[in-house]
Protein: Cyclohex-1-ene-1-carbonyl-CoA dehydrogenase
Amino acid sequence: MNFQLSEEHLMIQQAARDFAQAECLPGVIERDEKMQFPREQLEKLADLGFLGMMVSTDYGGAGLDTVSYVLAMEEISKVDASVSVCMSVNNSLVCYGLEAYGTEEQKQKYLTPLAQGKKDGALYTGAFLLSEPEAGSDATSQRTTAEDKGDHYLLNGTKNWITNGGTASVYLVIAQTDPSKGHKGISVFIVEKSWPGVVVGGKENKLGIRASDTHTIMFNDVKVPKENRIGEDGFGFKFAMKTLAGGRIGIASQALGIASGAYELSLKYSKERKAFGKPISEHQAIAFKLADMATRIEAAKLLCFKASFDKDQKRDYTLSASMAKVFASETAMWTTVEAVQIHGGYGYVKEYHVERLMRDAKITQIYEGTSEVQRIVIGREIIKQ
Ligand code: CAA
Ligand code: FAD
Structure:
């Protein structure tokens, strides 16, 4: 066992750290307040190769491993989780799903520009459309239908909470092709946002990750060519579950970054702020909070690396990804609440960043499977083993 990061990993970590400081930190408070999509930041991330980090270089990706992805996600999430959620969806849900299960034609046409994050010089990203008004955790209860019409499918229904919904060019849409078959009658399609019948609802006004782009998407008789189905008819639910396992590593590393960002700010502040004649870090109540933060963050990091290692070694990573996600997201929530406490009244105002990190942390316990769903997955896996 080797707990040492490679030279390449350290370089990627440093590049992501530099990027977060130089490109994400300026304006982060304003973008959050105004719900302003971080287009410029994402365009620059695309140029760095961070929107298709794990995609093979044959398809325009950076060809890196999952550990590199975790390191980059952590560094960017320390500063701006609205940027990192867009990055995470494009990398681990959209690009992964297409590379693992798409046809050669689908990869040439869609994966290459998505991995590069650009087409004709403009930002080009994807979104993953599973959730519906009545199908969130209970994801097999899909109401969106795709009716087989011979050479095409006719898509109808509503998806909600879709990250990148207003800005993505390509959607991976999960829909019911045969309701009588339950989850075995669910399929997955590549749909272009510009097609007739695709309607983008208003941007959600959220508690956290406010600059990210979350929308309801409606499909009204959208014609989807047969060649845009990914995998066999009926593969859609398995596709979603397999893809989400990798997505959960991305969100776990986002949560890890939010927690680490709050911890770093708290450590610095507690050494500078004096009360009762000494830095507050010298009061044991504060030092214990810092000790618990550091310990939980280290444990979360190791779980993220374990899940990445399993994925890179092509082992089953369903269990380790869910463990990383539930632990890192709960660490992020706990750490950010304590970070506000350590900052006292200053923690409650925007300039000190920790109140935003606290608001951003909450979503990591909800999306890509709530903490309850992760415990369902973990429970089933450990009993099965
Ligand atoms: N890999 C492969 N197949 C899997 C699987 C996996 N990880 N998990 C389940 N399956 C298969 C099962 O084997 C079963 O197939 P068979 O009948 O052929 O054996 C089928 O899928 C149905 O599985 P379950 O019976 O376990 O299904 P369930 O109804 O009990 O649901 C669940 C299980 C884990 C709760 C699942 O519905 C789930 O993960 N829900 C949460 C949905 C979610 O994470 N949504 C995220 C949306 S994307 C997002 O949120 C992005 C973002 O914010 C940025
Ligand atoms: P519900 O499933 O209704 O759950 C409500 C509560 O009940 C939760 O606490 C849940 O854990 C609990 N619960 C439900 N079932 C059980 C059970 N069996 N046992 C114990 N507890 C249970 N979805 C996408 O498809 N693509 C996206 O890009 C995307 N981005 C998102 C971005 C944001 C900002 C948000 C808020 C959501 C996003 N989602 C996305 C949707 C997200 O994945 C769902 O909100 C999530 O899966 C939970 O579903 P729900 O909201 O319907 O809650």
